[in-house]
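Protein folds are increasingly written down as C-alpha coordinates. With that in mind, we are printing a sequence and the C-alpha coordinates encoding its fold.
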Amino acid sequence: MAARSKARKRAIDLLFEAEQRQVNARDLLKERLAAPVTEAPLTEFTADLVVGVVDNWTQINDLLTTYSQGWTLERMPAVDRAILRLGAYEVLFAEVPEGVAISEAVALATELSTDDSPKFVNGLLARLAEVKPTLA
Protein backbone atom coordinates (compact mmCIF):
# COMPACT_ATOMS: atom_id res chain seq x y z
CA MET A 1 0.00 0.00 0.00
CA ALA A 2 1.36 3.42 -0.97
CA ALA A 3 2.28 5.93 1.74
CA ARG A 4 -0.64 8.26 0.99
CA SER A 5 -3.07 5.33 0.95
CA LYS A 6 -1.79 4.27 4.37
CA ALA A 7 -2.17 7.84 5.60
CA ARG A 8 -5.77 7.90 4.39
CA LYS A 9 -6.49 4.63 6.17
CA ARG A 10 -5.04 6.03 9.39
CA ALA A 11 -7.22 9.13 8.98
CA ILE A 12 -10.27 6.86 8.54
CA ASP A 13 -9.26 4.99 11.70
CA LEU A 14 -9.10 8.25 13.65
CA LEU A 15 -12.40 9.57 12.29
CA PHE A 16 -14.09 6.24 13.02
CA GLU A 17 -12.65 6.00 16.54
CA ALA A 18 -13.59 9.59 17.35
CA GLU A 19 -17.20 8.96 16.34
CA GLN A 20 -17.38 5.70 18.29
CA ARG A 21 -15.94 7.34 21.40
CA GLN A 22 -18.03 10.47 20.82
CA VAL A 23 -15.03 12.77 20.95
CA ASN A 24 -13.88 15.47 18.56
CA ALA A 25 -11.59 14.01 15.91
CA ARG A 26 -9.24 17.00 16.22
CA ASP A 27 -8.87 16.32 19.95
CA LEU A 28 -8.21 12.64 19.30
CA LEU A 29 -5.62 13.60 16.67
CA LYS A 30 -3.84 15.86 19.18
CA GLU A 31 -3.89 13.01 21.71
CA ARG A 32 -2.41 10.55 19.17
CA LEU A 33 0.26 13.03 18.07
CA ALA A 34 1.29 13.63 21.69
CA ALA A 35 1.20 9.95 22.68
CA PRO A 36 1.23 7.57 19.69
CA VAL A 37 -0.40 4.19 20.20
CA THR A 38 1.34 2.55 17.24
CA GLU A 39 4.98 2.07 16.32
CA ALA A 40 4.75 4.39 13.34
CA PRO A 41 3.83 7.97 14.23
CA LEU A 42 1.01 9.67 12.37
CA THR A 43 2.13 11.42 9.21
CA GLU A 44 1.59 15.08 8.45
CA PHE A 45 -0.70 14.02 5.59
CA THR A 46 -2.89 12.01 7.99
CA ALA A 47 -3.11 14.99 10.33
CA ASP A 48 -3.94 17.35 7.44
CA LEU A 49 -6.75 15.04 6.31
CA VAL A 50 -8.32 14.79 9.76
CA VAL A 51 -8.08 18.55 10.31
CA GLY A 52 -9.55 19.19 6.86
CA VAL A 53 -12.53 16.94 7.54
CA VAL A 54 -13.14 18.52 10.95
CA ASP A 55 -12.81 22.07 9.58
CA ASN A 56 -15.46 21.32 6.95
CA TRP A 57 -17.56 18.91 9.07
CA THR A 58 -20.94 20.62 8.82
CA GLN A 59 -20.76 21.30 5.08
CA ILE A 60 -19.53 17.77 4.36
CA ASN A 61 -22.33 16.20 6.42
CA ASP A 62 -24.94 18.47 4.81
CA LEU A 63 -23.77 17.56 1.31
CA LEU A 64 -23.59 13.85 2.06
CA THR A 65 -27.12 13.99 3.45
CA THR A 66 -28.41 16.00 0.48
CA TYR A 67 -26.95 13.73 -2.20
CA SER A 68 -27.15 10.28 -0.59
CA GLN A 69 -30.63 9.58 -2.02
CA GLY A 70 -32.67 8.01 0.73
CA TRP A 71 -29.84 7.31 3.17
CA THR A 72 -29.40 9.42 6.26
CA LEU A 73 -25.91 9.63 7.71
CA GLU A 74 -27.12 7.77 10.79
CA ARG A 75 -28.35 4.87 8.66
CA MET A 76 -24.97 4.38 6.93
CA PRO A 77 -22.41 2.04 8.48
CA ALA A 78 -20.05 4.05 10.69
CA VAL A 79 -17.01 3.11 8.64
CA ASP A 80 -18.77 4.30 5.48
CA ARG A 81 -19.46 7.66 7.14
CA ALA A 82 -15.77 8.03 7.93
CA ILE A 83 -14.76 7.04 4.38
CA LEU A 84 -17.35 9.34 2.82
CA ARG A 85 -16.36 12.29 5.00
CA LEU A 86 -12.72 11.87 4.05
CA GLY A 87 -13.57 11.30 0.38
CA ALA A 88 -15.88 14.32 0.32
CA TYR A 89 -13.17 16.46 1.89
CA GLU A 90 -10.67 15.40 -0.75
CA VAL A 91 -13.13 15.79 -3.65
CA LEU A 92 -14.41 19.19 -2.55
CA PHE A 93 -11.61 20.93 -0.68
CA ALA A 94 -8.21 19.28 -1.14
CA GLU A 95 -5.63 19.60 -3.88
CA VAL A 96 -6.20 16.01 -5.00
CA PRO A 97 -7.56 15.04 -8.42
CA GLU A 98 -11.20 14.04 -7.96
CA GLY A 99 -10.64 10.68 -9.63
CA VAL A 100 -7.82 9.85 -7.24
CA ALA A 101 -9.90 10.84 -4.20
CA ILE A 102 -12.83 8.71 -5.34
CA SER A 103 -10.63 5.75 -6.24
CA GLU A 104 -8.89 5.85 -2.86
CA ALA A 105 -12.23 6.04 -1.03
CA VAL A 106 -13.61 3.11 -3.02
CA ALA A 107 -10.49 1.07 -2.24
CA LEU A 108 -10.91 1.80 1.47
CA ALA A 109 -14.59 0.83 1.32
CA THR A 110 -13.64 -2.41 -0.45
CA GLU A 111 -11.10 -3.22 2.26
CA LEU A 112 -12.99 -2.05 5.33
CA SER A 113 -16.73 -2.23 4.74
CA THR A 114 -19.62 -4.20 3.28
CA ASP A 115 -19.88 -5.68 -0.21
CA ASP A 116 -22.30 -2.91 -1.21
CA SER A 117 -20.22 -0.05 0.18
CA PRO A 118 -17.74 0.48 -2.68
CA LYS A 119 -20.54 1.09 -5.19
CA PHE A 120 -22.36 3.42 -2.78
CA VAL A 121 -19.18 5.37 -1.95
CA ASN A 122 -18.29 5.65 -5.64
CA GLY A 123 -21.74 6.88 -6.61
CA LEU A 124 -22.07 9.44 -3.84
CA LEU A 125 -18.57 10.88 -4.24
CA ALA A 126 -18.96 10.98 -8.04
CA ARG A 127 -22.18 12.94 -7.54
CA LEU A 128 -20.38 15.42 -5.26
CA ALA A 129 -17.66 15.84 -7.88
CA GLU A 130 -20.36 16.45 -10.48
CA VAL A 131 -22.13 19.18 -8.47
CA LYS A 132 -18.91 20.72 -7.08
CA PRO A 133 -18.90 23.62 -9.59
CA THR A 134 -22.36 24.69 -8.36
CA LEU A 135 -21.43 24.70 -4.67
CA ALA A 136 -19.41 27.94 -4.58
